[in-house]
Amino acid sequence: MTKRIPLTLDSVRCSTCGLGQFCLPVGMAAEDAGRMDELVQQRVRLARGESLFRFEDGLDAVYGIRFGTLKTYLELADGRQQITGFHLPGEIVGLDGLGRNSHASTAIALEDSEVCVIPVRDLSSLANHLPSLQRQLMRLMSRKIEQDQQMLLSLGTMRAEERLAVFLVSLSERLAARGYSSSAFVLRMSREEIGNFLGLTLETVSRLFSRFAKSGVLRIQQKQVEIVDMAALRRLAGPHC
Amino acid sequence: MTKRIPLTLDSVRCSTCGLGQFCLPVGMAAEDAGRMDELVQQRVRLARGESLFRFEDGLDAVYGIRFGTLKTYLELADGRQQITGFHLPGEIVGLDGLGRNSHASTAIALEDSEVCVIPVRDLSSLANHLPSLQRQLMRLMSRKIEQDQQMLLSLGTMRAEERLAVFLVSLSERLAARGYSSSAFVLRMSREEIGNFLGLTLETVSRLFSRFAKSGVLRIQQKQVEIVDMAALRRLAGPHC
DNA sequence: CGACGCGTTGATGAGATTCAACATGTGTGG
DNA sequence: CCACACATGTTGAATCTCATCAACGCGTCG
Predict the structure, then answer these.
(1) Which residues of A touch B139 (CB under 8 A)?
(2) Which range (A7-11, A77-81, A98-102, B10-14) has the least confidence?
(3) Which residues form the HTH crp-type domain (chains A, B) (predicted)?
(4) What does the buried/exposed string (b/e) look like for B118-148 if buried means 16 or more CB atoms within 10 Å of the residue's CB?
(5) Domain A3-154 coded CATH 2.60.120.10
(6) φ, ψ (nearest 5 deg) of residue B87
(7) Nearest-CA distance from B3 to chain A in Å?
(8) Confidence (pLDDT) at A3
(9) Counting C-beta atoms within 10 Å of the first and last residue's C-beta, which end of chain B has fewer, N or C?
């Protein structure tokens, strides 16, 4: 089960967290960012495969990822699923439910992970006193819209090879922004999950990886990826990257 | 060119507008909704084909549609476009730019249309004093996220026939909610635009319309659509509708 | 060890795109 | 108000991309 971890006085807080530059306090003055500390009173530890929240659960909190990787997805009545995002440390998940008072998606940990609990009650009331927080929330949501629309563009207009290339470039950039290597990383998600996210089958994804490897763009060993020729990968990705 | 129309004291205002139930004031107490009236000081008239804003334009305002239909789309460096939404009266367009201070998409009128100008400066400052407006903005943005994610699901998992059926059912429902007929309406967008939105070619859309007509689900005369057998259409749409 | 999850690879086929020709509608200028 | 041009829509045939079905390899875990 999920473990709830209460924070003590000497725990790392938002104001001292290295992820601040990606997370909720982005772009807030130090003084305002300090107020975030009141907000986060506990964390949740998730084992791989555990869910953080499920579609239509009550929306008690949104969550900032401290470490680990999550996926969020929608589900159809007939069981078909669509993954709507893979989420890295510093990202906030659950925002898509803010307007309806219940979660609009399901979130699952792809590896052992830890998230900061941000209770929506406290978040809204603090936001009412803190315009900079308000703006930041807006910014996060509108960025999520942009991001989803970029995916629409990808699913709507791009072919398989292009989609996978864009996926890899963008993952690489997000990891690099967080201080990880941009050229060598571990895919926390399965071929099937990548395929689902990109609107492809797992076989197609596997074949494309093989093809990229054969042409010398990537080196692949199971989930371990190394981008050998970033320029070529960007070329495959088309005019996005 | 776009015509700017200043509002006079006796113009219809938010508090007296019939679209209130879809637009910005949704779910706000009458007293708070009254404050909206200060916000909208002018409207803009658009001829068919005119743009309301373009990608990366400065974000001076967001817009509530008073009458007409707009499309919003993204554009790639190589000219490929992806339509991200068709917008009906009562909907707010431009919210996707709120986080970046510039527009994240381009908006074009599909027919002669009129929109209410909502200056973002005034909107933010009013929102800071009016928690109910703040919440409404959140709600609108998170609904847009949900909507885009629904489209991701559609593009990622559904086949052509299903997508078009879902499109028609959802358009029908949105029109019905606005007091129009749910079974007979005019498509303001071309086959090409529908195809682009759904990730299909215009030929495929045309063929599907013909097939739906032949099987007795629809009657089609150019842009005039009549849904003859809604139950069958919902069946084609799969487990969404 | 055997079972199971995950990934790879090949053969085949379906669904959608592309190319092309034609039909119909719409708008403009004479 | 008609004629012509151009945009939009329809339909057919060939083609291609990707999905499906299937077999098999590898690694992990009870």
Answers:
(1) 98-100
(2) A7-11
(3) 158-231
(4) bbbeebbebbbebebbbbbbbbbbbbbbbeb
(5) yes
(6) -120, 130
(7) 28
(8) 74
(9) N
The CA dihedral of A141, A147, A153, A158, to the nearest 10 degrees, is -160
Q: Dig out the tokens for B155 from the structure.
A: 């593009």
Q: Which of residues 206-235 of B touch strand D (CB under 7 A)?
A: 206-207, 209-210, 220, 222-223
B203 Cβ nearer than 7 Å to chain D strand: yes
For residue B141, list chain A residues with Cβ-Cβ distance below 8 A.
98-99, 138, 141-142, 145
* pLDDT band (50, 70, 90) for residue B9: low
The whole-number pLDDT of residue B16 equals: 86
* Domain pair A3-154 / A159-240, same fold: no
B120 near A CB under 8 A: no
Measured between CA atoms, the residue of chain B closest to residue A132 is B128
Q: Chain C bases under 7 Å from protein CB?
A: 6-11, 15-20, 25-26
Sheet holding A106-109, edge to edge: A51-53, A106-109, A70-75, A81-87
Is the CB of residue B105 less than 8 Å from the CB of residue B72?
yes
pLDDT tens column, A225-235: 999 999 999 99
A75-110 pLDDT, tens digit each: 888 888 999 999 999 999 999 999 888 999 999 999
Chain A residues with beta carbon closer than 8 angstroms to that of B135: 124
How many angstroms separate the CA atoms of A180 and A165, rounded? 19
Residue that wins the pLDDT comparison between B31 and B46: B46
Cα Dmax for chain B:
57
From residues 84-143 of B, which are strand D contacts by CB within 7 A?
A: none
Q: Rounded distance, CA A125 to CA A74, Å?
A: 29
The answer as to CATH 1.10.10.10 being correct for domain B158-240 is: yes
Candidates 3.30.365.10, 2.40.50.100, 2.60.120.10, 3.30.450.40; CATH matching B3-143: 2.60.120.10
